Amino acid sequence: MMREIARTGLQVHVERVRALRARHLRHRAGRVAFPTALMRTPPGWAVDPAWQWVFPASRSYRDAASREDRRHHVHATVMQRAMQRAVRAAGIAKRATCHTLRHSFATHFQAVGYDIRTFQGRLGQTDVSTTMI
Length: 133
Hints:
The protein is mainly alpha-helical. Helix content is 47%, strand content 3%.
């Protein structure tokens, strides 16, 4: 589903994030903070790659309770600003947001003949009423 150029770029990004995570772990940082419901998870989960952010924030923070250095995910506004820069760089005159990409994805799926229920799951939607519009 992902074009090769995007797949390659994402793989490069993931490798950079893995290297960043390895540096953090060497300095006894980089453990994931779990939500309250998951606080009693096995200790190894906090350093498990499956729980690490694919798009980590550029800065770390000191957790008040554990006194450990942690890094959260990139904030939504960072993604929104990047999207706006990309829209301007592409010379697109219309308003486009990150949410526009969801609609573009759904439109493309529908244009090539997929059933609405198929891409409903891909978009993580439980209600297709807005997708159907």
